[in-house]
Specification:
The chain is of the alpha+beta class. The protein has 8 helices and 8 strands.
């Protein structure tokens, strides 16, 4: 699959003795520069005309960048194989792929072994490879999200924390825990540190909860990742963890695990 902006290329049109090259987003089309020859060879589709109501201006910012992670819509949507700027549509597809990943790991993952960040990269690729061209790759750009007290910026240099996180993850992923208190102590740190580093361009929240759930399952405890909601002051707890105060996140994890145990 094409891992550059040319993933949006749709067809060419001959007009006034020259070719126009059309790209697709949200079932509309915009003109941009000629794609590489190998793409034109793979997609020889040519149209004579295109309806005016199907034509839009290029909706992607930083289009000229050679770093595909920089190409986003005005609303912050990353360029994607779904060829969409619709947040709800993309979220639905992300959720579906994550559930498929849960099913796959339940059936195929060897929970007796430890795992580190390399495994997490593989999981990220498996979840997002049909959605984003950078699936499984570390982010290359600074990111920011939220407003007011919930605002945060993740700088590229935060990725320098990955080696330490990798060591910690390998330790806790093979550890056998004796109590909910003990495991939530480590999972709170794992979740918050992972989200502080924010290693991927998209999908960090989903992957952090997947990590948490796999470690819980290895210890015979209920998976709770899909039950962590904003209504539980989840983001505030995450931000407390950014300042190395893991107690709020630990409290939430403990509460959700105990709820799961009561409902078994």
């Amino acid at each position: 699959m094409t891992k550059t902006k040319y993933l949006l290329y749709a067809f060419k049109q001959q007009k006034n003795n020259k070719y126009l090259y059309w790209y697709e987003t949200d079932e509309k089309y915009f003109v941009q520069t000629k794609p590489p020859k190998y793409l034109l060879d793979a997609n020889s589709k040519t149209l004579d005309t295109i309806d005016e109501d199907e034509i839009i201006q290029n909706p992607w910012l930083e289009w000229k960048s050679n770093d595909v992670q920089k190409i986003i819509s005005k609303d912050g949507i990353c360029i994607n194989y779904l060829k969409s700027t619709n947040h709800d549509f993309i979220t639905k597809n992300e959720d579906m792929k994550l559930l498929e990943m849960y099913s796959y790991l339940v059936e195929n993952f060897d929970i007796s072994k430890s795992f580190g960040f390399k495994t997490i990269q593989e999981w990220h690729k498996m979840v997002f490879e049909t959605i984003y061209p950078f699936a499984g790759k570390n982010r290359t750009v600074n990111m920011s999200k939220g407003n007011g007290l919930q605002a945060w910026e993740w700088r590229v240099e935060f990725l320098n924390g990955l080696p330490e996180f990798d060591v910690f993850l390998k330790e806790i992923s093979v550890k056998e825990y004796d109590s909910v208190d003990e495991i939530t102590n480590d999972l709170a740190k794992c979740t918050c540190d992972f989200l502080f580093i924010h290693p991927f361009r998209e999908g960090n929240g989903r992957i952090s909860r997947l990590i948490c759930d796999i470690i819980l399952a290895k210890n015979g405890l209920p998976m709770i990742g899909l039950k962590l909601k904003k209504g539980d002051k989840y983001l505030e707890r995450v931000h407390s963890g950014y300042e190395c105060n893991y107690e709020p996140m630990k409290e939430l994890l403990q509460m959700k695990i105990e709820e799961g145990l009561r409902n078994e």
